[in-house]
Write a structure and sequence with these properties.
single chain, 235 residues, Aminopeptidase, four-stranded antiparallel sheet, globular
């Protein structure tokens, strides 16, 4: 496989660090199959690009995947499930026009200080959609109102590696006090179990970044470091 290395730029998560990415640079057509391999080595996608952090002086980013059949909600997660009892979730295989207005409200209200602000439709589509693989969409509804969407990749790489990969979740800002991000991960786990998936990939855990620490609360999970997966049964 061919890879390229980006220039160094300021890290989005650790303000005192700089970031560099290792990017899959092949021109072949079987990107979906390659992604099934590469996600097992700590890679991730953004839009149609497959990448992994490749920082010379920092190893803080660790890919996390939850063991679907072994996951048990914690006491706090059970409270979140109860708090969101009026919500329902369903799986969709194609995007709806109602997604972008919800995404726009979410970014404007929750991430106005981030690199994704101000949002626009082209940016939204280039981030969540993919030229070589169509994602799934786990939708949450309160009655008939769409209140959250989790963009999720279906990873199929042989019988031993059936997985979902959580790409991005956005939700109605007024639900913030109900921990919708955590609830949507629980919904992805529910749908993963129903579809016989072994893992749910959550992207990168960064212990020193408070915004990323929610991933470590889903147990048991495995983290990728030193070129291997290491099981973690407690926070």
């Amino acid at each position: 496989m061919k890879f390229g290395i980006t220039q160094t730029f300021r890290c989005s998560y650790l303000p005192d660090e700089h970031e560099q990415l290792l990017v899959f640079a092949e021109t072949e057509h079987n990107f979906a199959g390659r992604y099934g391999q590469l996600i097992q080595a700590g890679f991730r996608r953004s839009g149609s690009q497959i990448y992994r952090p490749h920082c010379p002086s920092c190893q803080a980013c660790q890919s996390v995947r939850i063991l679907v059949d072994e996951f048990t909600p914690s006491k706090s997660q059970k409270r979140i499930i109860k708090k969101n009892a009026l919500l329902t979730s369903q799986l969709a295989t194609s995007p709806k026009d109602s997604y972008y207005p919800l995404y726009e409200r979410y970014i404007t209200n929750r991430h106005a200080d981030g690199t994704m602000y101000p949002p626009n439709r082209q940016q939204f589509e280039s981030f969540v959609l993919c030229e070589w693989k169509s994602p799934l969409f786990i939708e949450a509804y309160k009655g008939d109102e769409l209140v959250a969407v989790a963009v999720t990749d279906d990873i199929d790489f042989g019988l031993e590696h059936q997985a979902y990969s959580a790409l991005y979740t956005f939700y109605a800002p007024e639900l913030t006090q109900h921990s919708p991000g955590t609830w949507m991960i629980i919904q992805q786990l529910k749908h993963a179990q129903a579809n016989n998936k072994r893992y749910l990939y959550l992207g990168y855990q960064i212990d020193a970044c408070a915004k990323m620490n929610y991933k470590s609360k889903f147990l048991p999970h495995e983290r990728f470091f030193h070129n291997d997966w290491h099981r973690c049964d407690k926070k």
